[in-house]
Amino acid sequence: MTDTRTLSITVNGTQYTREIETRRTLADFLRLDLKLTGTHLGCEHGVCGACTVRVEGQAVRSCLMLAVQANGKSVATVEGLARDGNLSPLQNQFWEHHGLQCGFCTPGVLMTMEEFLEENPNPTEADVRDALSGNICRCTGYQSIVDAVLATAAQARGE
Amino acid sequence: MEMRSFGQSIKRKEDPAFLTGKGRYVDDIELPNMAHAAFVRSPLAHARIKSIDTSFARQIKGVIDVITYHELPESLRQRRLPLVVPVESLTNPRLPFTLARDEVCYVGEPIAIVVAENRYIAEDAVAQVMVDLEPLDVIADCRDGLKKGAPLAHVGASSNVAATMHSVSGDTDAAFAKAAHVFKENIYLHRGGAFFMECRGAIAHYDTFQDNLLVYVSSQGVHRLKRSFLELFDMQDSKLRIVTPDVGGGFGPKGSYYVEYGAVAAASMRVGRPVKWIEDRRENFVATHQERDQYWDVEIAVDDDAKILGVRGTLTHDNGAYTPWGIVLPWISVATVPGPYVIPAYNMTLVSVLTNKVPTTPVRGAGRPQAVFVMERLMDRVAREFDLDPAEVRRRNFIKPEQMPYNVGVIFRDGRPVVYDSGDYPACQQTALDAVDYEAFETRRKAALAEGRYIGIGIGNAVEATGLGPYEGVTVRIGTNGNITAYTGATPQGQAHKTTLAQVVADHFGVSIDDVTIETGDTSTISFGIGTFASRTAVNAGSSAHMAAKAVSIKVREIAAQLLEVEPDDIELRDGLARVKGASNRSKTLRELAVYSLGKPGFSLAEGMAPGLENTAYFTPSQSSYANGTCLAEVEVDIETGRVRITRLVMSHDCGRVINPMVVNGQVIGGVAHGVGNALFERMVHDDQAQPLSTNFGEYLLPLAADVPRVEIHHQETPSPYNPLGVKGAGEGGTIPTIAAIVNAVADALRPLGVHIAEAPLSPQRIIELIEEAKARSAA
Ligand code: FES
Ligand code: FES
Fold this sequence. Notes:
The complex is a heterodimer of chains A (159) and B (780).
Chain A: E1 4-11, E2 14-21, H1 26-33, E3 52-55, E4 58-61, E5 74-76, H2 89-96, H3 106-119, H4 125-132, H5 143-156
Parallel strand pairs in A: 1-5
Antiparallel strand pairs in A: 1-2, 3-4, 3-5
Helix pairs in contact in A: 2-5, 4-5
Chain B: H1 15-19, E1 35-41, E2 47-53, H2 55-59, E3 63-68, H3 74-78, E4 103-104, E5 110-116, H4 119-126, E6 130-135, H5 142-145, E7 161-169, H6 172-178, E8 181-193, E9 201-207, E10 212-217, H7 222-233, E11 240-243, H8 259-271, E12 275-278, H9 281-287, E13 290-302, E14 308-320, H10 328-336, E15 345-354, H11 368-386, H12 390-397, E16 406-411, E17 417-420, H13 425-435, H14 441-450, E18 454-466, E19 472-478, E20 484-488, H15 497-509, E21 516-520, H16 537-564, E22 571-574, E23 577-580, E24 583-589, H17 590-597, E25 614-619, E26 625-637, E27 644-654, H18 661-680, E28 711-716, H19 738-749, E29 759-760, H20 764-779
Helix pairs in contact in B: 10-11, 11-12, 11-19, 15-16, 18-19
Bound molecules: FE2/S2 (inorganic) cluster (FES) (2 copies).
């Protein structure tokens, strides 16, 4: 039960080495060991998407991944999105379009949509809604999130 | 006063922190030496506790303590949870102990709390607490609870009826006797739970040195929780402080005091360390309050012109195992049925039944969506029987604007008569109809049918009591650094109070909202509070913010006038300065004035002056303000798969004057999404032993981005005469008429197949069943 391993991981560009229990999830590792509490837990069974982070660029549910599985990998969390105190274009559009209310789902939604926009620079509303369907937001009714994502894509295209 | 912020779609002050992962929810708080708790919960819906063996759990390394009823402090062994809203008709109130004593009455009821070095170990230990239970008979369905000879949901109770109440106006017997037509409906309505994304959670920090208790809790209002704590722990006011940090959604159930909170506090007192408990999602499904089942047997009497003569019937409500909120929820239901219509005679009997399930208390909409569904189903039934346009039937029965204020004749749950203050219901519906070109819908339907597609349109009209009293307070204070801060007991869970209340305050001082700080959810900052629910914050806290800010701004002017040797009316407030109008070089900063207002040690204050730039106001509304709305939904139903696609959704809405249109739109759209869930997806399933079967998001479906349509909003603005801002609540208006509109639209789409619908939610399987039943009926 207290089987431990040494974990070496890069999070938001910073390298960390820690001795951790093998049963520690990546989400708990980020929140408890690194104090990066921006990653939230909404279900701990892989459905709500609140815990989404990016591992080697890929959006993953950090509640379903053990921290040791991320050994040697590079992880990005919501804390890494803003640069030098400036919000990222997507964060800015969320602010502009009221894309969040309680903010609890927001980090996971942002990480999911960052990946989506990199792969889909030219999405339709239906594409966005489809890609967003792995994230539950109980506050916004999604519309303002969809608008924020579409506006970010348009902005990136120079429109 | 020059209006600058009020009425503007200003970007939220809250967002930069939330967007960058700097929100601070209760699980993000870490106190030194903190221990972690997990609960042992009942696996059975009704059982007697024979014994509890904690010895195995205690042996696990890292386990600090295991606490059952017997280890609780004396006062918690004597007292059950307090009843928040006692009423006379609640003849059989039932409340739990903090940890079950000898009987458990629903699956999930806490039996013991384990405290350990971390949550992983606490959960390991929960599995090792041996509880010996003797199963008892179970009431799983509220209708079964009323049967003769039914077993009892609580051992020793006289019956399963918690309360019976009659909501009466006019003479229904006479109305029905003379009616040309009477139509009956048996309606089943089920609403699930709130399912906020952040589960509940609390940290209790008992300070052994100072002998006081600090509780951080994810809630909708700290002051009411404090009252429950003080009562249960027999504690003196100065010994307890409750703080609610950022909250990841509330929607009603986070407004309750829960047994877990007291257990966590008791644990902290016993182990002498801070103790954190964060609910996991499975616990959330079994232990957080829900709404669930209502069975309505109703009839409507109409004359030959389809005008309503009377409505009567019975509501059988699934109360669950305990009655922490009394009968608030079903009472709101029966008082909301009349809606925007003239109903000369009304008689609804409410029977609230104890069952062996988690208690039901208000979830966004608070029993109103069900009431609106009932009335709107009846209106559609009348339309069908008369072969009239459903919009026309409603038009004939609307309360007209010239009838305002309108006394409905029934009593609301606050004990006051339901008197609508203002609103133009016919115009509200017309706006929605025009938006979708309603007149042309029959042409669209024919074209679709020709292609084998079943489309339908449905109307939901609602009137909603908002801004419920008794009060909410706001203290406005200008600090000696010149900062304007407002403190309130209202506690946000995403509604943007820190922005909208700042908008109200900022205008009084001629500053931007960035110059105003709003502090919420801390019992140490303001004496009294009620909290955020019932769409009440804009009305109550908004009005208090207005009153307190106004009082402080007057004092600022007076002091500035004194120092600058002019009249107060010659002073204007702008950008942190109090300056003489037309002489902008003669001014004082707010900072200078705040310092001056406190006086100098040993010197006297100016005559008649109280110290400080500070004022506290408690706005106490004389009655609710009534918001209203029309939801119009268009759907397409796939009759092979039963899938419903909402192709269009229009919400025409009147919540009085609007502080921040962007925020209000967000509330309305988010509310609609809850209605979509209730209409088509969300169902809390129990088996016949009241064992919950839908306890994760794979089994209990919440609406996703692809399920919720784009919502078109049309605002009307009829100011409420009952508060200084003219506002009405906006938090629930999106949810309330939406279920009715969507289900009416599905019924309309399937009308060519002879399908009759009197229930929600409608799953695809259920729609196919209804189609099959209709086919069988027409074949017979
Ligand atoms: S917390 Fe990981 S998907 Fe919900
Ligand atoms: S903003 Fe609250 S859950 Fe999405």
